[in-house]
Structures are given as C-alpha cells and as structure tokens.
Automatic annotation (TrEMBL):
Enzyme Commission no: 2.7.13.3
Family annotation (InterPro entries): BphY/WalK/GraS-like (IPR050351), HATPase_C_sf (IPR036890), HATPase_dom (IPR003594), His_kinase_dom (IPR005467), Sig_transdc_His_kin-like_C (IPR004358)
Protein name: histidine kinase
Transmembrane segments: 12-31, 37-55
EC class: transferase
Domain of life the protein comes from: Bacteria
ATP-binding as UniProt keyword: yes
Alphabetical list of PANTHER family matching this protein: SENSOR HISTIDINE KINASE GLRK, TWO-COMPONENT HISTIDINE KINASE
Taxonomic path: Bacteria, Pseudomonadati, Bacteroidota, Flavobacteriia, Flavobacteriales
Record field: catalytic activity: ATP + protein L-histidine = ADP + protein N-phospho-L-histidine
Length: 458
C-alpha cells in the first residue's frame, strides 16, 4: 500500500515537471530576447522559479526515502532491532515506510526471543540428561559448551579449555579428544586410577570460519553392572520357580509314602504296606530328582544348541509317572486329575525329563486357574492327528486367559501372578522348540484352557 502511494505521487510529480519543461521550451522559442531582453526575462522568471522548486521537491521526495532506508539498514547491520521509528511525523509515505520498518523490527525481535527461549530450553535439557556433551574449538581448544554430566563422567572441574585435560591426563585426552569416533564406539579409560567403560561418539561442525568438535559420551559401566545384577536376579528367580515346581510333587509324594510307612510300623495288621506301591513311589521320586538335575543343567545352556537325550517313550508310561508325582498333591486340593489315551501303544520321541518338566508346569498352571472353580478338573490326553503328529493336551475348566494377554503369555518374565516369575510358559516353549515341536494355547474366559504339545517327530 505504501509503495502504491509512493508510485502515484512520484508519477504526478514527474508529469508536472514534464509539463513545466514543455511550457518553458515553448516560451523560450517565442520570446525575442534581442528586441526586449527585460520583458523576456520577466516572462521567463516565473517559469524558471517553478521549474527550480519542482526539481528541488522531486529530489527531496526521492532521496528522503533513501535516507530513511539507509537509516534502517544501518540498524540492521548492527542488529539493533529494538529501535522504534516515529510513525507520527513526516509525510504520509514516510509514515507508512516507518510503520513497515517497525513491523520488520518487531517480527525479528519476536523471532529472536523465541530462539533464545528455545536455546535456554535445549540448554536446560542437555544439562539435566545423564549423557556427557562438550563442544569446543578444534584449533584453540576453547570450550564452546559443556554440561555437568561430561565433567562428572571424566571427573574434571569447570572446563574452559580442553588443553587442561591434555596436561592433567594425556592418555585420556588422546583417547577422548584426539581420536575421531564418527561411529558410536565403546572405550575403556582410566579415571582416578579406576577403569571406566564409556560409550562415545564425535562429530565435527563449522560456525562461520571456525571448526568445532562435538563429543557425546555415556558411562555404561554402572549400566552394565545393573543389567548383570538384574539378569542374575531373574535367573535365580526362574531357577527357584522351576525347582519349587519339581520339589512340590516330590515332597507331597514322599509325605504320602512316609505316612503309609509310619501307619504300617505302628499297626502292621491294620495298615499293611504295599511294597509295590512303595517301590513305585520311590522310583518316581528318584526319576524326578534326576530330571530336576538334568533340567538345571539344560536350562543353564538353553539359549545354545542343547543335546537332548531323546528316546521313544510310551505316552502311557509318561502319564503314569506324572500321575504318581502329581496325584497326591492334587487329591489334597480336591482337584480331579484324569488321563485319556486313544492308543496305549502311542510312542513319542522325546527327552522324558524335560517333557515331564513341561507337563508339571502346565498342570500347576491349570491348578492355579482352577482355584475358584467348584469342581476343578484337569485332563491329560494323547492322540495322533490326521497328519500323523502326536499331540498331548492339558485341559482344565478354570477361569481361562483373557484375550488381551493371551499373545503375551510366552514372553519371558511376563506374568499376571503377583508372585510369578513369568518364565514357566516361556521355558515350556523353549523346551518344545528344542524338540523341533511346538506348543499351542486355546482359552475361553470362565470356560477353561487347552494347551497342546504338538510333536512333529512322532
């Protein structure tokens, strides 16, 4: 809008000047200076005066705007954006021009305030994070910026020049500052006579003609120690969980056998002990104890290629072992344990001790799920499907598994139990994978759960 007004006024002034020059030219042509010089000068004088003031006015009109612009650019040159141009004095076009200057200054001032606020915000964040950051001039060593985490990590005081570290600890200076770490790398440095492991990365950037280096480092010594401690805690929790799962049925069976022996000793006539039952029970305790030792050894290297002790096992024998182990403890809890098998001659190639561990885990899960059911029932069944695969199913009539968590039940350390380790089902899956087989779960809330062990190498 200011430019349009300026253009219009300038055009009018040029037109007026043009007409003044034209009239002057005609006047000079028709005047007779030789005959009557005084009269000719008297007639010409007013036109010359008008022409003079027209030129003078046009000159001032044009250059007054240039003066204002030069003044504005001078303030920009020295970054003086706080200056305010007077919008109330001067001609209309000058007022409009000054108003535009003020708008520009105001906008730049607001942008600078926002940038300053962002800079302070970013600086505060970088000061609070636990990652050490430093930026310094490569040539002079002068520190551009450093946060407390960096000083704490390298155990240095307020740092103004990195050459201080070169004098204090040349080896540390060479490792951290001299070498380039364009790719994230781990280094070991000695700080106050103690070796510390650091994760480090560096980058070079330029500001104007100066080259700077940015170094980012993180102390991972404490993190590694913490992770190692957590891993050991989880391992101990898992081992305790699995050992307790195996010891519980062994203890229950041993207690039952002990009761029968004591009754037989106190009253041999009334409570005659069945030596076959006693032998079977002791044999079950022996086998499960051996299985527990084998499990501990296998779990220790479960994430590696583990050699399984495979053999063709009759499923009916497997079920008999499980019945002997689990029946006493389930009977005390009034839980019915049933076994169903279509073909008594059904054999599966497996590591008996590990598969027993899987079945114990799954039965104990079924017991947990059936706590609030009036007539809890757990059924183990075995059959072959149309593809020739042997399938062992563990079915319960418990509370079932909610749909929103069923996909996570095989995730290590995922558990909905307050005292659970979250490793039972994960371990079952790993054991089945070692057998090159798989485990599947189907569940409906308030109806029950079916866990299927599908053996491809039947």
């Amino acid at each position: 809008m200011a430019y349009r007004k300026y253009k219009l006024v300038l055009t009018l002034r040029v037109i007026i000047l043009f007409f003044a020059l034209t009239i002057l030219a005609f006047t000079i042509t028709y005047l007779d200076f030789q005959t009557n010089l005084q009269l000719s000068l008297a007639i010409l004088a007013p036109f010359l005066i008008i022409l003079y003031y027209s030129f003078r006015s046009l000159y001032k009109f044009i250059f007054r705007r240039f003066y204002e612009m030069d003044d504005f650019f001078e303030s920009v040159k020295y970054r003086d954006f706080s200056r305010w141009f007077n919008e109330k004095s001067g001609s209309e076009d000058i007022k409009e021009l000054r108003k535009g200057f003020n708008e520009v200054n105001k906008t730049i001032h607001e942008i600078n305030k926002e940038k300053e606020a962002q800079h302070l915000y970013l600086k505060k964040i970088l000061e609070l994070i636990n990652t050490g950051i430093i930026a310094y001039n490569i040539e002079s060593g002068k520190v551009l910026w450093i946060n407390d985490a960096f000083k704490k990590t390298l155990s240095v005081p307020s740092l103004k020049n990195v050459q201080f570290i070169e004098k204090r600890n040349p080896k540390l200076y060479n490792t951290v500052f001299t070498k380039n770490h364009n790719i994230e790398d781990s280094i070991t440095v000695t700080i106050e006579n103690e070796k510390t492991k650091l994760l480090i990365a560096s980058s070079i950037f330029q500001i104007k003609e100066e080259s700077y280096k940015l170094i980012v480092l993180q102390n991972i010594e404490s993190t590694l120690t913490q992770n190692e401690t957590e891993a050991w805690k989880k391992l101990l929790s898992v081992m305790t969980h699995e050992i307790m799962n195996s010891i519980a049925p062994i203890s229950s069976l041993a207690e039952t056998l002990q009761t029968k022996v004591q009754q037989s000793i106190s009253d041999p006539n009334e409570h005659q002990i069945d030596m076959n039952d006693l032998d079977t029970g002791i044999e079950s305790i022996k086998k499960r104890s051996e299985g527990l030792l084998k499990f501990a050894k296998t779990y220790r290297s479960l994430n590696k290629i583990t050699k399984l002790n495979l053999s063709n096992i009759l499923v009916i024998e497997l079920f008999e072992n499980i019945k002997t182990l689990m029946f006493p403890s389930l009977e005390n809890k009034n839980i019915d344990l049933h076994f169903e098998i279509e073909n008594p001659n059904l054999e599966i190639e497996m590591d008996t001790y590990l598969i027993e561990q899987v079945l114990i885990n799954l039965i104990l899960n079924a017991v947990e799920a059936s706590k609030e059911v009036k007539h809890p029932k757990i059924t183990l069944s075995a059959q072959k499907n149309i593809n020739g695969q042997a399938i062992i199913k563990i079915r319960d009539n418990g509370k079932g598994i909610p749909n929103e968590i069923i996909e996570n039940i095989f995730v290590p350390f995922f558990s909905t139990k307050k005292t659970g380790s979250g490793i039972g089902l994960s371990l079952c899956k790993q054991i089945m994978l070692l057998h090159k087989s798989k485990i599947q779960v189907k569940s409906a809330e308030n109806k029950g759960t079916i866990v299927s062990l599908i053996f491809y190498t039947a």
